[in-house]
Write a structure and sequence with these properties.
alpha/beta, TIM Barrel, 14 helices, 12 strands
Length: 354
């Protein structure tokens, strides 16, 4: 079952990429609450065919360029950040979202509760742990590491600055709580066993997500491929956590990360599709500049979509939960990537383990 769920996939680079149906031109924004783009029948049919175990979404939601895709008109980014989540959650395919801003500054239980109040009962959040806990370095405003971070993987801070506030505020709408470790400095990476011991100690200190969040899962994402070892998978399994499949140029292609998921099977799938591989390990800003305002698919990646759809379908067919969030930097427009992935799933479910 494990091997058949995650097979090596043939090269389909030459296959045509599906194009989402054209959306109407956005209207000028009206006064009052932010309104969602009306749902076309074809989009609703795609959503209706999606397993209830599968929650797809984007990395945050405050993009004016999504007018005519998610919003029914043009709205300011600041207003979308404050008020747009309710309209976002009315899109039938957007059943989760990654709260990226928690990485930059811890959120309070009250802030999480405000987010939870903006979405329907079956919506689940993916939340990034604060860099205070997940970055081995203290960084300046320019992003350069200045000195070792004494709070790196601190169990007490992980509990009190992240897990407990998220659980208290989001409750049953908690989906995946993701500890995304920033790239490790070389001296620390050379002491890999020490890093594993610190990860394990932190995970053991975390409170159980149940019964407050029956669908909740703790996931660990990395940026250093040297950490993708059987020992890492085993410590995650021992702690009841899972591996967050990171689709990022700093990591190996998806097929080479699947052994981590096989080692943790059966279990939920957590995936964050961050940046198109064509931009390289340090191409985030290049992708952002090229793809803005994020209103169209620029570089469709059928290879990743095909492979990811197979893993999603196999996981959902085994009645395991799936959380996948996609960045605008993956293909050009995150909500259009979500739609293309959902359409790919329509032809994949039921034969993933064949």
């Amino acid at each position: 079952m494990q091997d058949s769920l995650f097979p090596d996939l043939p090269d389909e680079a030459g296959a045509p990429s599906p194009s989402p149906a054209a959306t109407p031109a956005p209207r000028a924004a009206r006064a009052g609450a932010i309104a969602a783009q009306p749902v076309a029948p074809a989009l609703q049919a795609t959503a209706d065919a999606l397993s209830h175990h599968v929650r797809l979404g984007t990395s945050t939601w405050s993009y004016p360029g999504w007018a005519g895709i998610v919003w029914d008109g043009a709205y300011a980014e600041s207003r979308l950040a404050r008020e747009g989540l309710t309209a976002y959650a009315r899109h039938p395919l957007l059943r989760t979202v990654c709260v990226d801003r928690a990485f930059y500054r811890p959120l309070s239980a009250i802030q999480y509760a405000r987010l939870a109040a903006m979405v329907p009962p079956d919506f689940r959040f993916v939340v990034k742990a604060p860099s205070l806990v997940t970055d081995a370095l203290v960084r300046g405003e320019e992003g350069r590491g200045r000195q070792p971070n004494p709070a790196f993987l601190d169990p007490a801070l992980a509990v009190h600055e992240f897990v407990r506030p998220a659980l208290e505020g989001l409750g049953e709408k908690t989906g995946a709580l993701v500890f995304q470790l920033s790239p490790l400095p070389l001296p620390l990476l050379a002491r890999r066993d020490e890093v594993f011991d610190r990860i394990a100690a932190m995970l053991r200190a975390l409170p159980s997500l149940r019964p407050d969040a029956p669908d909740g899962v703790i996931a660990v994402e990395v940026r250093d491929p040297e950490l993708l070892t059987p020992a890492f998978a085993q410590l995650l399994r021992d702690a009841g956590a899972t591996y967050c499949l990171g689709l990022h140029p700093k990591l190996p292609p998806i097929a080479e990360q699947l052994p981590m998921l096989r080692a943790l099977w059966p279990g939920p799938l957590v995936c964050r599709w961050n940046v198109n591989r064509r931009h390289g390990a340090y191409g985030y800003e290049d992708a952002e500049a090229l793809y803005a305002p994020f209103d169209k698919m620029v570089h469709p990646d059928l290879d990743i979509r095909t492979a990811l759809a197979r893993v999603i379908a196999g996981t959902a067919d085994a009645a395991q939960n799936v959380y996948v969030t996609i960045s605008n930097k993956a293909e050009g427009s995150a909500p259009l990537s979500v739609r293309a992935l959902a359409e790919q799933l329509q032809g994949t479910s039921g034969r993933a383990a064949a």
